[in-house]
Amino acid sequence: MVTNVTSFGRSGLYDWMFQRVTAVVMLAYTLFIVGYLLLNPDMDYTQWKALFDNLAMRIFSLLLVFSFAAHAWIGLWCVTTDYIPMAGLRILVQAGTGLITFIYVAWAIQIIWGV
């Protein structure tokens, strides 16, 4: 039996619900960007930069990054626990994906906030 040590939440139901919530956030962001691009077909760099200089858009983008990271972590945790039966290898793969996820989140924060 696989222990729940590396799971994102306390139970499978919690993880399932959290993954659905993050999917809704990602869908909302995608629909917003597609709608914005459709409503501004002749957009130039200054308009695009102005959109992402807006505090609300930066927060929305940060929410997208955190949602994407959590969504990916839950999915990868499920895959690794299902298909990698050896505990040592599974922990190594999960640690690697966790490190990569952390690096991507830190990088995205740097890009979004210009830190």
CATH homologous superfamily label: Fumarate reductase/succinate dehydrogenase, transmembrane subunit
The sequence of SSEs as H and E is: HHHH
Question: How many β-strands, per DSSP?
Answer: 0
Number of separate domains: 1
**What does the overall shape look like?**
elongated
- Quote the average pLDDT: 91
How much strand content do the residues show?
under 5%
Number of DSSP helical runs: 4
CATH architecture verdict: Up-down Bundle
Annotated CATH topology: 3 helical TM bundles of succinate and fumarate reductases
Indicate the CATH class: Mainly Alpha
Rg estimate, integer Å: 17 Å
Give the termini separation: 43 Å
Uncertain segments are none
The major sheet is characterized as:
none
Helix/sheet category? mainly alpha
State the helical fraction.
over 70%
